[in-house]
Amino acid sequence: MKIQLATKPLTDITTQLLVLPVFQGEKAKYQDPTVTDFLNTQPQFGKLYENQLIYTPKQKFLLLGFGKKDNLNFEKLQNLSGTAVKQSLQGYKSISLYIPTLDNFDAKTVGEAIVLGAEIASYDPAKDYKTSYTQPVLTQVEIVVDKADRGYQEGFKIGTIMAESINLARKLGDMPPNEMTPTYFLNTAKKIAKDTKLKITIIDEKTAKKKGMGAFTGVAQGSEEPSYIIALEYRGDLKSKEIWGFIGKGVTFDTGGISIKPSSKMEEMKYDMSGAGSVLGTMLSIAKLRPKVNVVAVMAVTENLPGGKAQRPGDIVRSYCGKTAEVINTDAEGRLVLIDALAYAQKDLKATKLVDLATLTGAVIVALGDFYTGAFGNNREFTQRLIEAGASVGEKIWELPLSEEYNKMIQSEFADMTNVGHGGSMPSAAGAITGAKFIEQAVLDNRPWVHLDIAATAWDLKSKPYQTAGATGVGIKTLIKLIS
Ligand code: BES
Ligand code: ZN
Ligand code: ZN
């Protein structure tokens, strides 16, 4: 899809559809009499994402509700652009979207949001799988603005790069688990490393075992598919000792292992690699944007299957972080693979500030519902910085507590810790927190660390006017903003 910027009168549009914003409670002034008539008879029109096609002999219009002007933010702008594009994919070869000058938005931010929305809307997970799939006809999107500003083009560039990363992460999450295996994930990472000149290190199961990554290999041993810890390195600031470390849970399918999950909705557990998918996407963006920072990424990629060699409840595993863990429930596998990946990021790659992303617990969905990512950290300021980075690009994150009271909930009689929380007033008490507590045990010398539980936000159950259902690629925008 080609996205271009134009500054011209709306009467000079030559594309097949002109999308016009209508703010709720404001009288929009557009020259076409049919549009004017419609808006006069429908003074209530303008609710967010509400839309109306109007055909005149000269031009087709899509009136698009932008909601209340004061409520407009990055996320809504992105989704409005997405709505315009998603509505048009099958019906028009070319469209124009008019974006008036907006108070409180600079041109770069507008450009970024618009391109993100457009590219994300044009992704379809069924593309390679439905034999009846028809390619969208829309190939050209023209963004019409009031006055030229170089910021728009700058925003377009960043938005295009981030959208490519987000759509890649979505594709990996949406792909069926028989195809999107750890090996497929590895090959994707290899290709990115080659194309963008990132350094890649691949630790296979044999090497992981030798290195002492028993928490990771304990999970991996239940599956016939080869598993990997994959590291990518980007050096943008050779003078600095600061190194960001992004760590992702990459369970390409989570059956629960021997503590097997109920079969209802188990198919969704293909998105249990979304943390690693978002980390990979972030590295792709970083490699293309080339910011002046150092970043390493570690992705722990495996299936969690109940094969003949699978680990048992009761097993005690030795982690590369130096601690032992008693496996009470083999379905709490994410935290196991993460502690080894986290230890590798610190001990071998010298990461100084850590963020891990994981579809870790159902409990975070119970706590926060579908809209917020749960955040847990050991450093208030650092966590806050990350939350604000997310808010600026419409990724909602809410901090949950991680104070020392919770330590006793992962104490083990036989090892350093249990992989499931216990001792609360109900069995599942503080499930998301005890998961985070476990991961915290692998943070060395108390360096700044945030764990993001994306179990709810990495997956959309319902299609939206601006984006299909399925994997979301959550976290990529936040991490890019965080390091920028
Ligand atoms: N991958 C799941 C968490 C999950 C649940 C992600 C729902 C997305 C949607 C994770 O590995 C898991 O099974 N966690 C268990 C932990 C429990 C055994 C302590 C859970 O949440 O039930
Ligand atoms: Zn699990
Ligand atoms: Zn899992």
What would the keywords be for this entry?
19 strands; 484 residues; eight-stranded mixed beta sheet; binds zinc ion; alpha/beta; elongated
Beta-strand share of residues: 15-25%
How far the N terminus sits from the C terminus, by CA atoms, comes to 27 Å
User: Overall 3D geometry?
Assistant: elongated
- Poorly predicted runs: none
If strands are numbered along the chain, what order do they take across the biggest sheet?
7-8-10-9-13-17-14-15
Largest sheet: 8 strands, mixed
The mean pLDDT is: 97
How many runs of DSSP E, i.e. beta strands?
A: 19
The oligomeric state of the chains shown is single chain
Helicity level, as a percent range? 25-40%
Gyration radius from CA atoms, angstroms: 24 Å
Bound molecules: ligand BES, zinc ion
Secondary structure tally, helices: 13
Structural class: alpha/beta
Provide a short characterization of the protein structure:
The model has no long low-confidence stretch (mean pLDDT 97).
Descriptive account of the structure:
The chain has 484 residues and is of the alpha/beta class. Helices cover 33% and strands 21% of the residues. It has 13 helices and 19 strands. A hairpin with a 5-residue loop joins strand 11 and strand 12. The two termini are 27 Å apart. The mean pLDDT is 97. The structure holds ligand BES and zinc ion (ZN) (2 copies). One zinc ion binds at residues 251, 254, 272, 333-334.
